[in-house]
Amino acid sequence: MIVKDRSLIWDDCPACAFKHLAGAVAALTAGSAPIAVPAVDVMRARAYIALGEAEAGYTGNAALAAGCLAVAESLCDDWQDAQELRESRLRIGKCGVHEARMSLTRPYMYALAAGHFTEALRELPALSERVGLNALGGDGFRVTNREEFLDLLRVQIKWVQETYELGVK
User: Fold this and answer.
1) Residue 138 has what DSSP assignment?
2) How far apart, in whole angstroms, are the C-alpha atoms of residue 37 and residue 129?
3) What CA–CA distances, in Å, run from 137 to 2, 56, 91, 143?
4) 20 to 30 A from 59, CA-CA: which of 46, 68, 122, 156?
5) Adjacency order of strands within the sheet including 136-137
6) pLDDT of residue 114
7) The pTM is what?
């Protein structure tokens, strides 16, 4: 068994993918409308999530957060918003991950759902192969049928639990 190094960005963690899929369900069930999240908001949410994980000891995710913030900044049409994203990215090295996270505008629920789903796909490449990238496009995250997407998430959660023996005891 390979011991995971918390100072690196992980890319094959079934338990992490499970957590992110469940996070997506939790965030999606906070509302009922079809979901459309601009790419800049998906990247902000991913940065927010990664900074939280870096705070929890997965320090490699600080680099992932910096990358997400850099992409979000490049996608941003609003100068003030771009400045906030840049400042948050720079705070990672200057002030630490907690300060960087607290300086970000908290993502809205659907953006968190998109961020968690995207992180699940990144954390477990086999999951990405199973579901494809249908909900993700160049302009962001789009779900036209919320119930179908929730069903897809539930099926993937069960698959991850059973395949990687993550059963709840």
Assistant:
1) T
2) 22
3) 34, 30, 29, 11
4) 156
5) 35-38, 140-143, 136-137
6) 93
7) 0.91
